[in-house]
């Protein structure tokens, strides 16, 4: 036996608990959609409007993370379009778009395979979008996913973008029938503070995806776990416990899949024959951490910066929580932060509101006698994770560094 036979023997678990770990990858396309019959029905009814000559100009599809919005919306639209010649579906994910201009460019890219330079302006890009759509079937469903990520723009307001998309002259002139399906975590009208001319152009059709309940998570996870693990590798008790905890804490299918993957890895490391309740327990926090850290990586630079200030004070050997707005501001003004990153009080307040909407911080007002009313700020997760993420954020963030896109 060569050195390498021994090496590979050593690293190959004798009786691995996993059969096909990839089945637990949340990005892997599942065979079937479970527990979203009501939402699929609503989406299908909206699409069926095509046969009667009306599809609402906008549809808001919203709900917390990991509740099947992207999966169900794409699947139902794709299946409908493949049965209906008069309909085309285009899907655009706006997660990486920092500005409204780049969001419009991303749509253009999906339609034509090309992007335009900033000099053509938002109007220039939209003009080309309408030209491209002229050659499309009678109806186009445009799915704009993760649209709530696009709100940090110094040149255009969200209302400018939506006004062009819904009421743009080029579109009206050419008589283009477009239905824009907006997928996000919050209801957009509330989140983006759209002005009234845009609101009146939007329909109030919406489809809500609630967090999954235990039985629903069980039906989603069962077929995935059966593929992923050897038979009997996950005890019934561990399955029920994991599903219950995942539903109680998150209602999120993505996190639930991660939880069972990590629990399986723990069982393997400990040479256990089955995944036990304990393996679930030790990973509940690890799963939370993984999800939060990936959210932190995706934050725009200002948002991350403000979080480092919120978690920047120490007290008794620990990170001080909660902190006040004044403490946050004075941390940002301290010499640890370069002058060019100075945001100013109003910008910081705005960022804090965004962070609260994203569920990353909680704020409340304390009355402190003579000092008056003081705003308290606290992270909704272990504050140390911000510090742990810092180096990686600076290296990997798409929001820092040279901006060549626009
Ligand atoms: N009803 C379901 N049936 C089967 N698998 C599901 C279901 N819901 C979610 N999943 C699994 O969870 C993953 C995440 O779901 P999806 O991407 O649709 O969530 P989302 O609601 O769009 O979340 P986010 O708000 O974070 O974008 C899917 O890729 C799929 O693997
Ligand atoms: Mg999604």
Helical stretch tally: 17
**Uncertain runs with pLDDT below 50, 5 residues or more?**
402-406
What value does the average pLDDT take? 91
Give me the CATH fold name of the largest domain.
Rossmann fold
Bound molecules: adenosine-5'-triphosphate, magnesium ion
Number of strands: 10
Shape: globular
Overview of the molecule:
- It is a single chain.
- This protein is an alpha/beta fold.
- The protein has three domains: 17-26 and 217-296, Helicase, Ruva Protein, domain 3, CATH 1.10.8.60; 37-208, Rossmann fold (3-Layer(aba) Sandwich); 299-396, Winged helix-like DNA-binding domain superfamily/Winged helix DNA-binding domain (Arc Repressor Mutant, subunit A, Orthogonal Bundle).
- Helices cover 50% and strands 12% of the residues.
- It is built from 17 helices and ten strands.
- It has helices at 3-11, 37-48, 69-83, 100-112, 121-134, 158-167, 169-174, 188-191, 196-201, 214-228, 236-249, 253-269, 277-297, 301-310, 325-333, 345-357, 384-396; strands at 58-62, 87-93, 139-145, 177-184, 206-208, 314-315, 318-319, 323-324, 361-367, 373-379.
- A five-stranded parallel β-sheet has the order 2-3-4-1-5, sandwiched between helices. A three-stranded antiparallel β-sheet has the order 8-10-9. A two-stranded antiparallel sheet has the order 6-7.
- Strand 9 and strand 10 (373-379) form a beta hairpin.
- Helix 11 runs parallel beside helix 13.
- The longest helix is centred in the C-terminal third of the chain and has 21 residues, at 277-297.
- It is globular.
- Mean pLDDT is 91; it is low at 402-406.
- Magnesium ion is lined by residues 69-70, 145.
């Amino acid at each position: 036996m060569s050195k390498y036979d021994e090496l590979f023997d050593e690293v190959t678990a004798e009786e691995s608990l996993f059969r096909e770990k990839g089945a637990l990858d949340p990005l892997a396309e599942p065979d079937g959609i479970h527990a979203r019959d009501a939402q699929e029905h609503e989406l299908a009814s909206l699409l069926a409007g095509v046969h009667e000559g009306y599809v609402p100009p906008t549809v808001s599809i919203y709900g917390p993370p990991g509740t099947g919005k992207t999966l169900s919306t794409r699947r139902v639209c794709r299946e409908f379009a493949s049965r209906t010649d008069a309909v085309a579906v285009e899907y655009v994910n706006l997660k990486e778009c920092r500005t409204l201009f780049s969001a419009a460019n991303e749509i253009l890219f999906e339609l034509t395979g090309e992007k335009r330079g900033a000099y053509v302006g938002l109007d220039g890009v939209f003009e080309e979008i309408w030209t491209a759509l002229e050659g499309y079937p009678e109806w186009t469903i445009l799915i704009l996913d993760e649209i709530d990520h696009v709100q940090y723009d110094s040149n255009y307001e969200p209302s400018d973008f939506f006004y062009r998309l819904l009421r743009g002259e080029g579109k009206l002139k050419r008589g283009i029938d477009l239905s824009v399906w907006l997928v996000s975590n919050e209801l957009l009208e509330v989140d983006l503070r759209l002005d009234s001319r845009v609101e009146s152009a939007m329909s109030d059709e919406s489809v809500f995806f609630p967090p999954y309940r235990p039985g629903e998570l069980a039906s989603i996870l069962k077929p995935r776990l059966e593929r992923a693990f050897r038979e009997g590798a996950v005890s019934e008790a561990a399955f029920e416990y994991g599903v219950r905890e995942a539903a109680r804490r998150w209602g999120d299918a993505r996190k639930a899949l991660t939880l069972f993957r990590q629990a399986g890895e723990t069982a393997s490391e400990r040479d256990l024959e089955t995944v036990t309740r304990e393996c679930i327990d030790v990973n509940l926090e690890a799963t939370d951490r993984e999800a939060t850290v990936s959210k932190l990586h995706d934050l725009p630079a200002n948002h991350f910066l403000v979080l480092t200030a919120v978690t920047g004070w120490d007290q008794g050997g620990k990170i001080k929580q909660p902190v006040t707005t004044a403490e946050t501001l004075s941390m940002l003004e301290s010499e640890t932060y370069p002058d060019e990153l100075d945001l100013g009080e109003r910008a910081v307040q705005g960022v804090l509101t965004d962070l609260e909407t994203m569920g990353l911080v909680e704020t409340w007002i304390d009355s402190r006698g003579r000092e008056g009313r003081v705003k308290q700020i606290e992270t909704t997760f272990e504050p140390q994770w911000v510090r742990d993420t810092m180096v990686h954020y600076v290296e990997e963030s798409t929001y820092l560094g040279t901006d060549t896109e626009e």
